[in-house]
Amino acid sequence: MNVRKRPKAGGIVVPNAMTNNALWTWDARMRWWDGGMDMPLGMAVPDAGFAFPYDTRFFVENYRRLIDEVAQWDPVPKVIIWGFLRDTHGGKRAALEVATHAAEQGVPLVAGVGSGGYGGVYYEGEHRYNAAHFLRRNPNLAVSNTKVLNGERTQRGMTVDPLNDHVLDWLAEGLGWLMREFPLAGVNLEIGDFFVPESLAARTAGVREEGILDEFLQTLVLHYRGLFERLTIPFDAMDISYANYSKPSVEKLAANPGFATALPDSAICQWTLTSADEESSLDGLLPRRNRGYGHFQSIANGSDARCLRREIAHMVEVADRHHFEGVSMYGEIPPGHGCAQSNYEAFQAYCRNPELALRERPAPRAGSGLAPDAEELV
Fold first, then answer.
1. Which of 75, 293, 309, 330 has the highest Cβ tally under 10 A?
2. Is 357 helix (H, G, I), strand (E, B) or coil?
């Protein structure tokens, strides 16, 4: 179902405009202001920390510059910040400064929250809503995870048990605190890339009867259903999105028909569109609200210096074909870096009028250096 709003772009009504778009960032990889410091180039992983070796000024100044830039865009995108709360960049005080500035500039700010892996509501530090802090006090609530992808099973590290009632209560309480303390537009949730906890086995009967057979989708549905039922924040009025780490495909969705209606209609499913190519209709197979996510212009995968107009166009074209309400890409670098200015202009133009993306219809080049969407590239 298409739930897009229909804004005016340049004084002309654009019926099919995508308005729920976002720039996705990690605090430690921001390059809008480097302060003369070296930058980390790595990726974050769900069961290990991603360090921020800088100071409060680095965090605040980088996001101030990004916010001031996108406040002038049409349409204005949301800014997603992973690492929004951590002791090393100033904690609550620094995060509040950034969130307040975004609100004053009319830029919707979304906090990244790890609801299984990726640290909890408070990504790093001695705080009651940090996952490591929580597990030190509740070691019995830790669980071993297995990454299940393409039939292969890889043992991974320990995280909070995403299916445990006490963990879900803690997460819901933390999200309530987050939304009360900061002027945010919503949260971008991640459970951990294809993580299946050992606790799943005893809980699958109900979701299998609903037509959800994939182990990771079972985990995702049970986790977010339990979490969303506990939330006391105004859910319908906020941008609450969750990553499923996959590209949309008829084969996978048809094999798991219950997924489309398993979670609340107001929740936004985040699909990876880096190399998505599904051309068949997905009508009736998708959740009501969907947003695309492309690993474009990322320092982590080396695409930050490349001109990506064609790749961005392809992402928007796929999202438009399947009636997504928006798309997202990385926003960690400023317009003066590499081809960023051209990439940002393309992102705005294609979202404002997806028909323009058809002119760049060819799929991304083979061997483009962009990693497939099945990899951990956050």
1. 293
2. helix
Whether the Cβ atoms of residue 144 and residue 218 lie closer than 8 Å to each other = no
Tens digit of pLDDT for each residue in 172-211? 999 999 999 999 999 999 998 889 999 999 999 999 999 9
Sequence ranges of the domains in the chain: 8-360
Pairing of strands 142-149, 152-160: antiparallel
Tens of pLDDT, residues 91-132: 999 999 999 999 999 999 999 999 988 889 999 999 999 999
Instruction: Match domain 8-360 to its CATH number in 3.20.20.80, 3.30.70.100, 3.40.50.700, 2.130.10.10.
Output: 3.20.20.80
Q: For residue 223, which of 86, 134, 113 has the smallest C-alpha distance?
A: 113
pTM of this prediction? 0.90
CA-wise closest residue to 112 among 185, 165, 21, 194: 185
Q: At what angle do helices 165-181 and 215-230 cross, to 10 degrees?
A: 60
* Closest residue by Cα to residue 355 from 74, 19, 17: 17
